[in-house]
Write the structure tokens for this entry.
Amino acid sequence: MIDSIRDSALYKIANPESIAIFGASNKYTAMGTGILSSIMQMGFEGRIYPVHPKEAVVQGHKAYSSVLDLPETPDLAIIVLPTLVVPEVVDECGQKGIGHAIVVSGGFSEVGDDGATLEKRLKDAAARHKIRFLGPNCIGVVNTHLKFNATFLPCEHPPGFIGMASQSGSFITQMFDYLGRYSLGFSTGFSVGNEASIDIVDCMEYLAHCPDTRVIGLYIESIRRGRKFIDTARRIMPQKPIVAYYVGGTEAGGRAGLSHTGALAGEDRIYDGVLKQSGVIRAHSIEELFDICWCLGTCPLPKGNRVVVQTHSGGPGAVAADACSRNGLELPAIEDGTKQKLAEYIPHTGTMNNPVDLTFTNRNLDYFVDLPKILLQDKNVDALLVYMMMPRGMILRVAESMGVAKEEAREAAVKFIKDQSTQMADAMRNSDKPWIGYSYYSMESDFIASLYKAGAPVMPGPNRAARALGAMGQYVEMRNKIISLN
Amino acid sequence: MEIINQAVAANQQALSEYQAKLVLAGYGICVTREKLAADRDAAVAAAREIGFPVVVKGSGANLMHKTESGVVFVNIADEQGIADAFETIAGRLGGNFKEVLIQEMVSGKRELVLGLHREPQFGPCVMLGLGGVLTELINDTAFRIAPFNETEAKDMAADLRSSEIFKAFRGEAAADMDKLAQSLCALGHIGMEQENIAEIDINPMIITPDGGLKAVDALVVLKGGSH
């Protein structure tokens, strides 16, 4: 385990001050061109040196016909060239003194024996010059806090707190839009490709030390350095949670030998054990992975598994209670003292059992700020799930029925929604117990959109909220176990 | 371990059940009381010593699936039964017959399977599952990579869908979880220390009515044995 982020082989890859890029041109269909465009589009402030055999200028940058001609030794080489020339180019980068590279080019060990031979040549060339590289066959890296997006898709989400390492490049680049929708984002994302030089364990170590990363996400198809993975994860997880989505073989009998044990040892079951003993939370979909990262990155940790559900609609409350019970969460009875405090808020149609159901209320701010605070003061309660719904149309209707003019009502509604969501997000952020919202409404609802923008975790639906909260509980349990053993 | 070295030197694919139990017992795993017997009289004497009822099994390093070969007789209650079982086993194995294993009869309604195999990326890997004849069908298993400690081993037991099996059940006591955890860790140690062992099955490991654990059948496959 490294002591500092600067000791990581990935430091210069994720934080370069200057880059050489091979394979970018003025031809807009080339992948290298796309990567250079992404780098420029996000506003990278470092120096950029395109290397191109013919072009004098590439996308406005002076180009060089050989890396040896560059006016300085850049921190990082990004190589997006035909497979066959890659080992030679890496060798030239080494001659120039470049210590780090991203090899985007594919056609190596992933395509069979000939590719594996080429990959060996690539590794040999890198080893000769002590070059550490990401890839080959990867999609690159994004460091949103440095405005450095060396992938071929534009990254428009704000700088985020999820540090991700993925064995599929798509789960970096194609998640930009997905995360942005919830005002989430990657702090740094690594596509590891064939892991010829740098693997997912190196990425975990980097992200463990990365100050912008609050939670580490992994997409895993196969772990190469198995034992190192377990040891490293166990060392990292007490300080920073790790969430992994593993997709591999589900078939039993992959290890068939002479014993029953061999026949029963399916990869999925083995990875399940590996992740558990590593203290890594296992997600079962990409959405779930990011839900859990979202809650872990924005909420305090629960002290226990007792949840109170607050709703003003029966069905969504009942569904949340059901989802809690399937995710290892309990719904305790609330204390009498809490009931007394609630009495003035809850109409005779409501219930003070758990779920606490207000039914219809015309006191919105009570619902979104005061009531949750009262419920979270209850000693029987470790966490809160709040059902959220505030369609603008409904507020407009109320305002209009009170005789407010249409245009004025619209402005008032916008302001009302903004005030409510801001106050609620503040209360959620300042709570010392986790407080997670859930809703069937989406970004289309300006109340929900505004909560996202304020950094509040509002899960799409109660099942996802209960699962994310359950996973936070699992994290606490695993952390206690691992700390007690260290 | 001497038994393993000798078996490797003799080109055995696997240890005999008797040898396997010695290895397991050497690592503190609780196994059945048992004796080898090469003739009828020795078999009867062994059964008397162990106490009826007993189990009579054909014994040999190449007998990896004894039940399928029809050389396992359980719940033998008297000397005539021993004699009959001995003759039948000798007859079925013919020229391959060498000796029988006389073993205490272990009762208990709950059967576990414990195992060890090697994972290319992770190394020795220990399994715990629901045992008995439905093991593969039910496929309720948990795995951990060795080495791990007893806390982790107990976590593994909690992972089983049927983890309720460890609680008191139909007049039988709750399983001794410390003992179970120790057995799982012991398998891990074997994996770490005995490079010549490729795979181990303990199936069944019976939870006895008093909550104890006893390895009733065991298979130790040697390196090269599983190809």
Observations:
- Chain B touches chain A at residues 13-14, 64, 113, 115-117, 119, 121-123, 125, 127, 129, 135-136, 139, 141-145, 148-149, 151-152, 155-156, 159, 198-201, 203, 219, 221, 225-227 (CB under 8 Å).
- DSSP finds seven helices and ten strands in chain B.
